[in-house]
Design a protein that fits this description.
The protein is an alpha/beta fold and 311 residues long. The protein contains ten helices and 13 strands.
């Protein structure tokens, strides 16, 4: 196995690629949109890559008109796409508006059929063993049973080969049922080193608890060593090594207006910091700065900060 300190990639991300259409107006009535790549897992990978992490991506991209754009955009951020396959079908689309600062207004097209080609055959032990952290979310699990099996295979291989496993439950009930989401979560829970749920709605639905403190205790009892509960404008609570800290959102000189995918920006910042050897409490403090920067700057992956933006 490759020694931890000389592995080629800090983070290996499994996920679906989307095309994101952004507007500051009403989604149904806007005349113009800004177009870019998107998806929760793409945001995690791009955030970490822009901060300086070595990121590799496992996905499938359809041969539709957006095929070249998606590949070129991922490469432009330095993300390795050697394990991104080309498939038949279509890439997913969604629309995002920032017109209501206190809400997240989405309109998801049905997930693209390209991601249905993601399967366990795409998971190789040597790729996993050459990464410090393997990350996926339920966004990928919700696509198909082969995609769920791919996530399980990646997490299981990482778990038995000293590779950190990180996961965001990222509950999206417009994509699948709560029962399916719970089944997929419980299937990978024993393999997780890091979990990044949100409270109160998501944690209540999945675990039965609204308070971050209760969520941490519940997940500690099930063997997850690092629990980071994101709590919107209240910041986050981190549980690790028997210690718990609550961190507030840092003071900003502008309002946090752009809420879309802000949790994924947090995840990317957190995992980047962990891969750099920081403890989970310092990593969460750094991640809040990343999320706040994105929230002040705009929607889209272009709004995510590079490390020089944080000086």
């Amino acid at each position: 196995m490759t020694p931890h300190h000389i592995r080629d990639y800090d983070i290996l991300v499994l996920g679906e690629t989307y095309i994101e259409f952004q507007t500051d107006g009403n989604i149904a009535h806007a005349d113009t949109y800004t177009k870019d790549i998107g998806g929760a897992d793409v945001y995690v990978g791009v955030t970490a890559a822009k901060l300086g992490s070595g990121v590799s991506f496992i996905s499938a991209i359809a041969r539709d008109p957006f095929h070249t754009m998606i590949r070129d955009r991922l490469l432009s951020y330095g993300i390795n796409i050697d394990h991104v396959s080309t498939s038949d079908g279509y890439n997913g689309l969604y629309f995002l508006s920032s017109r209501k600062p206190d809400e997240r207004e989405y309109l998801f097209h049905h997930p693209g059929s390209a991601a249905q080609h993601i399967s366990p055959s795409m998971i190789y032990d040597n790729l996993l063993q050459n990464s410090k952290i393997v990350y996926a979310s339920s966004e990928l699990q919700s696509i198909s049973k082969p995609a769920r099996h791919a996530v399980f295979k990646a997490f299981h291989s990482a778990h038995i080969n000293d590779v950190m496993v990180a996961y965001d439950p990222n509950l999206r009930l417009q994509r699948w049922s709560l029962d399916d989401a719970k089944e997929s979560l419980w299937g990978v829970l024993p393999l997780l080193d890091v979990i990044l749920p949100s409270a109160p709605d998501e944690s209540k639905a999945l675990f039965g608890y609204e308070r971050p403190l209760d969520v941490i205790g519940f997940l500690w009892d099930r063997g997850v060593s690092i629990v980071v509960v994101k709590h919107g404008q209240h910041g986050c609570m981190i549980g690790y090594d028997g210690k718990i800290e609550e961190l507030a959102v840092p003071n900003t000189n502008k309002p946090i207006t752009y809420q879309g995918l802000i949790g994924s920006a947090f995840n990317g910042g957190f995992l980047h910091s962990i891969a750099r050897g920081n403890d989970p409490f310092s990593a969460a403090e750094f991640a809040l700065k990343i999320a706040s920067f994105k929230g002040m700057t705009g929607n889209g992956v272009s709004s995510l900060p590079a490390i020089e933006n944080l000086v």
